[in-house]
Design goal:
Number of helices: 5
Oligomer: single chain
Helix content: 55-70%
Order of helices and strands: HHHHH
Largest sheet: none
Distance between the termini: 33 Å
Shape: globular
Low-confidence stretches: none
Strand content: under 5%
Length: about 90
């Protein structure tokens, strides 16, 4: 059920200053789920995030999370290019 997650990310990008703390917390939890999602959903997430004024904040949050090396490289290559490269 990825559509509600994607919708919440889009809404947060548009209405961040007006959102309450609970929704902002949910936003970051959804970021993590979408960053680990299967490819078609992940691709939509990246597309939304690339145009977001919150992209740098998203990358800071995601950088603090645990990812497999493949997930990390995928995020580093497609969304958070400033992350350090990983070996392997």
């Amino acid at each position: 059920m990825p559509q509600p997650l994607l919708l919440s990310v889009s809404l947060a990008n548009d209405f961040w200053p007006q959102l309450n703390q609970d929704f902002k917390t949910l936003y970051f939890h959804n970021q993590l789920k979408l960053a680990k999602a299967y490819y078609p959903v992940y691709r939509q997430f990246v597309s939304i995030s690339r145009h977001s004024p919150l992209q740098k904040v998203q990358c800071v949050y995601l950088r603090q999370q645990s990812f497999s090396s493949d997930e990390y490289r995928r995020l580093q290559r497609q969304l958070c290019q400033h992350w350090p490269k990983v070996n392997g």
